[in-house]
Amino acid sequence: MRRLRRQLAAPLAALALLTPAAAIAGTQIYEPLSASVQAALSRSVADNAPPRTAFRNSLDAVDWQLEMSRRLERRIPDRESRLEFLRAVHYEATRAGLDPQLVLGLIQVESGFKKYAVSSAGARSFMQVMPFWVKLIGRPDDNLFHLRTNLRYGCTILRHYLDIEQGDLYRALGRYNGSLGQPEYPNMVRAAWQNQWAYTRPTIATR
Fold this sequence. Notes:
This protein is mainly α. It contains nine helices and no strands. Helix 4 packs across helix 5, helix 5 crosses helix 9 and helix 7 crosses helix 8 (169-177). The chain starts with a helix and ends in an 11-residue tail after the last helix.
């Protein structure tokens, strides 16, 4: 029994780190932006209605949504809410030039997929966006608890940090979390991305 407890201790500890209560929530640090960067980010978060899909074709959409929905079922039990969430993640991530599976990994670490999660620093919702971003690049009535608004801000911010870091994901994730140079948060997001959300499009057998 003692041996079994020791074997379970490490996995349970790692799992605890990924729960909303213990997650290293997103505390992006305010940094002054140049007028051109601020204008570009403001345009990026402008809340225009997206097209129906960001997938190349309907078969890709069905395959991805079915697989991700299966993995997400325990966290978002309602099927329609789950599919709406996944469509929004795929669209906003693709729009920002990000891997949708990376964004799912980040959300898992940041909020545990809790829409109304609020960190001790005040970061909000799925991607734990700090409210100062609304004043900096958004509009006064932008609601960070709104699904697409939160995802658009979060994906835009991560894209911004990736651009600053010239594509260095490790450093960009550190900036996103306000922990630049520390390994814990980037490693957690990469582990969630690779272990929970990695996806390879199914191949169709040919004769």
